[in-house]
């Protein structure tokens, strides 16, 4: 079978590889694969992995061989939860498998999904409805993490929520907030991303330079009840804190490995803000994401910018780096 392996930092090769052995896991024939910034970080060597490593953690496929428990039958279409978890530690027992200290991520700790076939623990599989198109499911893994993020902020109908950064995740977070009845203010420098978020539920979308003025106007000076940072820089972290209203919840969806200072710490105290840092998603989050797509509540199709074949992974990775694109998919044929 074909497998896209990271053989050294910056080098990804599609190689002929033996098909995976079951060893009790289900064998899934991959159909649709998604790329994201994590893949770029792994390729660039910013995230250390053992090499060669089959890349990829976003994927939809069909069960080719059932696993030991036979919980999923041959021919069933499935979403793969890329988060690895042991199921026996304290955090897993407490309902936090996404924080499992013995876990990891497909394509990072173990071989991933960028291949014709993958062996997957049945605990990581979720059935997806047959009537939902592959395009509609193209963002469902990312949507699961956005569902997890939105769950960290109490949002009531009529509340105001700011989404700072309108890439794929920011666009999906905005749709989720709008579906909960929030007034959504999207913030990005990109004019076409502002137009897109307005088409899918946002109340207003502005540039970062106008954000403070518009937020104050819409909230009559009170500030928003929630701010979602979806960029991942110290500068945008600071802006999220500055835009938040008193007693608001600030959710840092974006991540940075930097140890930089410069955050407005006094505002954290003065506004008595609640800060949340969502990590990954749980099976319940993915189940909700699938239902939201199946019911038409969230529409990820307009976020898909490019499609490639598995053999064209170099082009797919290059497209993922392009700021003029949103979601990049690979179809496995």
Structure description:
- This protein is α/β, with parallel strands linked by helices.
- The chain has 2 domains: 2-141 and 281-331, Medium-chain alcohol dehydrogenases, catalytic domain (Quinone Oxidoreductase, Chain A, domain 1, Alpha-Beta Complex), CATH 3.90.180.10; 152-276, NAD(P)-binding Rossmann-like Domain (Rossmann fold, 3-Layer(aba) Sandwich), CATH 3.40.50.
- It is built from 10 helices and 18 strands.
- It has helices at 37-43, 90-93, 140-150, 168-179, 191-199, 211-218, 234-243, 265-271, 283-294, 313-321; strands spanning 2-8, 11-16, 26-35, 53-54, 58-65, 77-80, 83-84, 104-105, 117-120, 125-127, 160-164, 183-187, 204-206, 226-229, 249-252, 274-276, 304-309, 327-331.
- The strands form 4 sheets. Strands 3, 5, 6, 9, 10, 17 and 18 form a 7-stranded mixed sheet that branches. It has a 6-stranded parallel sheet with strand order 13-12-11-14-15-16, with helices on both faces.
- Helix 7 links the parallel strand 14 (226-229) and strand 15.
- Helix 3 packs across helix 4 (168-179) and helix 3 crosses helix 9.
- The longest helix has 12 residues, at 168-179.
Which regions are unreliable across 5 or more consecutive residues at pLDDT < 50?
A: none
Tell the overall outline. globular
Largest sheet properties: 7 strands, mixed
Helix tally? Answer: 10
CATH class of the largest domain, anyone? Alpha Beta
* Average of per-residue pLDDT values: 94
Task: Note the beta-strand portion.
Answer: 15-25%
Shape-level CATH architecture of the largest domain: Alpha-Beta Complex
Number of strands: 18
């Amino acid at each position: 079978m074909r497998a896209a392996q990271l053989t050294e930092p910056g080098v990804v090769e599609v190689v002929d590889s033996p098909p995976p052995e079951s060893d009790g896991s289900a064998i899934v024939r991959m159909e649709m694969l998604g790329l994201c910034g994590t893949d770029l970080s792994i390729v660039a060597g910013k995230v250390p992995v053992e090499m060669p490593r089959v890349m990829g953690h976003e994927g939809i496929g069909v069960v080719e061989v059932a696993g030991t428990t036979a919980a999923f039958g041959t021919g069933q279409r499935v979403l793969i939860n890329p988060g690895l978890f042991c199921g026996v530690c304290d955090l897993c027992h407490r309902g936090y498998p996404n924080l499992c200290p013995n876990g990891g991520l497909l394509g990072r700790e173990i071989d991933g999904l960028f291949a014709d076939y993958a062996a997957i623990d049945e605990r990581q599989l979720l059935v997806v409805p047959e009537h939902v198109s592959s395009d509609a499911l193209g963002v469902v893994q990312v949507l699961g993490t956005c569902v997890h993020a939105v769950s960290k902020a109490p949002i009531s109908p009529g509340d105001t929520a700011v989404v700072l950064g309108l890439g794929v995740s920011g666009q999906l977070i905005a749709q989720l907030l709008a579906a909960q009845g929030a007034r959504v203010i999207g913030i990005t420098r990109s004019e076409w991303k502002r137009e897109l978020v307005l088409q899918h539920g946002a109340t207003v979308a502005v540039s970062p330079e106008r954000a403070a003025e518009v937020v104050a106007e819409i909230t009559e000076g009170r500030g928003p009840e929630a701010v979602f940072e979806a960029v991942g820089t110290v500068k945008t972290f600071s802006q999220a804190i500055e835009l938040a209203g008193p007693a608001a919840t600030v959710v840092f969806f974006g991540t940075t490995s930097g140890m930089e200072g410069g955050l407005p710490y006094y505002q954290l105290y003065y506004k008595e803000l609640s800060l949340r840092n969502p990590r990954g998603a749980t099976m319940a989050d993915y189940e909700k994401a699938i239902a939201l797509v199946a019911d038409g509540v969230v529409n990820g199709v307009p976020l898909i910018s490019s499609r490639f074949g598995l053999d064209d992974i170099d082009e797919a990775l290059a497209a993922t780096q392009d700021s003029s694109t949103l979601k990049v998919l690979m179809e496995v044929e």
